[in-house]
Structure formats: structure tokens, C-alpha cells
Amino acid sequence: MDKRERERPRVVLGVSGGIAAYKACELLRRLTESGHDVRVVPTASALHFVGEATWSALSGHPATTEVWESVHEVPHVRIGQAADLVVVAPATADMLAKAAHGLADDLLTNTLLTARCPVIFAPAMHTEMWENPATQENVATLRRRGAIVVEPAVGRLTGVDTGKGRFPDPVEIFALCRRVLARGAQGAAVADLTGRHVVVSAGGTREPLDPVRYLGNRSSGKQGYALAATAAARGARVTLVAGNAELPDPVGVDVVPVGTARQMREAVLKAAADADAVVMAAAVADFRPAVYTTAKIKKVEDQEPEPIVLVRNPDILAELSADRARPGQVVVGFAAETDDVLANGRAKLARKGCDLLVVNEVGEHKTFGSAENEAVILAADGTETPVPYGPKEALADTVWDLVAPRLAENRR
């Protein structure tokens, strides 16, 4: 193997025996086409859905289920030892149970026992199987040990059934794999939010004036979604309260859609009841129309419209900070400013009482709708962390880099 081959990230794609096995072909294609060296390790049951020839052709490596093939290479040990990432997609209830209890009856389960790299499980099964207490205990065990078990999607299942248990979008699983590999390559703790529940708000609220019009803002939700996705990649259980964001759900994240500021308050406070950290990245409207008109407000010729009277919306960030749902809960706010950015940010930090405040300059062509951002993160202890212009995922990771040690300190 030449130097260039050795430098390619080595990924083991484990495939267990569920109907969603065919979707793993798309994940495999994306991994190989982006320069990853992928070895597919299917279970015997998986080969009933997708044959060995397909896996071998797409990966460029032989795909085998047995520990007895190429015994001189000790595959049941070497494959896991050499991997930079193991991703099991789909992961059936049976596979989760075997992994949680350390069973090793085929090549994939042996590989899981010998891997010292990050491990991702992407479950797919019927709702009743996912919600069964045995499966939930197995998932909790795997997460406690540092594995990343993403939440399955909600949607059409096998046959006519619909519910939670659908295989997540392969594109989103691929994005998760890349985030985990990138953090590992940087020497960062990959799953430092394992066992934590975090709540993130995203997007902009809309305050209705009549059935047609509303008072809103320019927020796209991209920064909040990046915060949710990076938290999931670091092992957290994530609840994303999303206001009017037209973005795909991040893989492994529970998304709660809302419309108005009052709806967001209700959803955030409910989710925060057992959360270790809450990050309010949403652009929550400060005001709403005092009166909602049930019929469309008509334009009358030669007559000026009636003034729109506004009233204050609830201050969710201040409420969260003043009344923490549990001891040690970390609260993070966002401040979108147009002038005197840091001065206004420091004043807002003191006024809101949160632990961290992400301050950035916004405007018509700044931040809103962009894939990039820059900010300064102010802390209640007086420290300031500048984040240079770059992808919103980079800012999100910096936020979690500051949250994680605070959570660890609070646990002591």
C-alpha cells in the first residue's frame, strides 16, 4: 500500500439485515467518491437484501461475513484495529442488542469489539421495536460507552406502516460521518457530549397580523441547524425547536416545528425540563401585533391604513437563564447586532444572565442565509472567544467546545 492509500480515511461500513440495507449503497457511494477507503462488512442476513458482489464492486474490497475467510490476515481483529470510523447502517434491533452485550458471532460484531475509533449506529426498524424498553436500554448502554446512536427518522416503514424507525437520509449520515472523522483528525474529543441532552432553537418566528401577513425576520435557521447537527455528531441527544426554517432535518435529531414566539417558548421550556444545555440560536421576534385580524386587511383607496400596535413577546432567553430547569444547566444565547456589536453584546449578556452569548454582526448581506459566519463568544466569567469567518459548523463546534467543559465541571 503506497503512502497516498494509507492517508485515505479508513471506514468500515457495517450492514445488518434490514430492508433498508439497499439505502446503504448510497452511503457507500458517497464515502468512496469523496476519497474514503471503505471496507463493507455485512451480516449474513444483510446479504439476503443486497448481495456480496454489489458491496465488493462499490467498495473495491471483498465483502465477507465470516471470520474464517483469509484467516491468516486475522480479519476479526485487524479490520476494527485499522479503522478510523465504523458506521453500522442500517443497525437493526438485533445488531444493537449484540453490540450492547458484547456478542461476537460474526465478522461485524467482532469488528465492533476490536474497534478503538468512533462508532456510529444508524438504526432502522419498526416503531414498536425501536420503542421497546429492551432496545431503548441497549441504545442507552451504547451511548453511555461513547457510541453515537442517531435517532431514526419518522416516515413510511415496511408495508403500510408509518412511524419512527425509518432509516435516516444517507446524505445526512454521510455528513455526520465526515464531521466525526474531521474532529478525530483534529485530535478533538469526538463524543464529548455523550449522555447529554441538548436543546437548540433555530430559524425565525412569524407573528401573524391577518391570515395573509405576518411580522418576521430574515433568519434562515442555518446556524441553529449546524449547532444541532454538530451536537449529534458529538454524541448528544438533540431536540431542535425549529421556527419556519426550510431545511432538511439533521440526522439523528428530534425536530419540533413551531411558528410564533409563544409557540417557541412553550416548546423550548418543555424540552429544557431535562436538558443539560439550551442554545437559543433562533431569531425570536421581540414584538407581535396586538390584534390579529381574522379577515385579510383590505386596502381602501385614498385612505391610510390604521397603525399596527405592537406588544412585547416573552423573553425566552432571560426566562431560561433566571429559572434553570435543573442544577448546572448551561444556557447559551445569540445576539444579532447591527452596530456597536461588542458593547451591545456585553450589555445583553449582563441583562439576560446566560452563561455564553454568541455575538455577531448582521445585515441584509451578512450572516442571514449564508453558509458562513463569524462571531465573538462572550462568557459570564468575562472571557471572550473570537471565531473567524468560516463555515457555520465551525462556529457551532466552538460553541460546544465551550459548553462541554462547563457541563463536565457542573457534574463534579
Automatic annotation (TrEMBL):
Reactions performed catalytically: N-[(R)-4-phosphopantothenoyl]-L-cysteine + H(+) = (R)-4'-phosphopantetheine + CO2; (R)-4'-phosphopantothenate + L-cysteine + CTP = N-[(R)-4-phosphopantothenoyl]-L-cysteine + CMP + diphosphate + H(+)
Region (Phosphopantothenate--cysteine ligase) location: 198-412
Enzyme Commission designation: 4.1.1.36, 6.3.2.5
Listed pathway(s): Cofactor biosynthesis; coenzyme A biosynthesis; CoA from (R)-pantothenate: step 3/5; Cofactor biosynthesis; coenzyme A biosynthesis; CoA from (R)-pantothenate: step 2/5
Short name of any one Pfam family annotated for the protein: Flavoprotein
Signal sequence extent: none
Names of required cofactors: Mg(2+); FMN
InterPro entries given in the database record: CoaB-like_sf, CoaBC, DNA/pantothenate-metab_flavo_C, Flavin_trans-like, Flavoprotein
Superkingdom per UniProt: Bacteria
Binding site for CTP: D286, K296, P314, D315, I316, L317, F334, K348, K352
Cofactor info, note text: Binds 1 FMN per subunit.
Gene3D superfamilies: CoaB-like (3.40.50.10300), Flavin prenyltransferase-like (3.40.50.1950)
This protein's UniProt keywords: Decarboxylase, Flavoprotein, FMN, Ligase, Lyase, Magnesium, Metal-binding, Multifunctional enzyme
Domain Flavoprotein: 10-173
Domain DNA/pantothenate metabolism flavoprotein C-terminal, residue spans: 193-404
GO molecular function, a single term: phosphopantothenoylcysteine decarboxylase activity
Chain segments carrying region Phosphopantothenoylcysteine decarboxylase: 1-197
HAMAP family noted in UniProt: CoaBC
Function: Catalyzes two sequential steps in the biosynthesis of coenzyme A. In the first step cysteine is conjugated to 4'-phosphopantothenate to form 4-phosphopantothenoylcysteine. In the second step the latter compound is decarboxylated to form 4'-phosphopantotheine. Catalyzes two steps in the biosynthesis of coenzyme A. In the first step cysteine is conjugated to 4'-phosphopantothenate to form 4-phosphopantothenoylcysteine, in the latter compound is decarboxylated to form 4'-phosphopantotheine.
Family classification: In the N-terminal section; belongs to the HFCD (homo-oligomeric flavin containing Cys decarboxylase) superfamily.
Record-given protein name: Coenzyme A biosynthesis bifunctional protein CoaBC
Organism, scientific name: Streptomyces bugieae
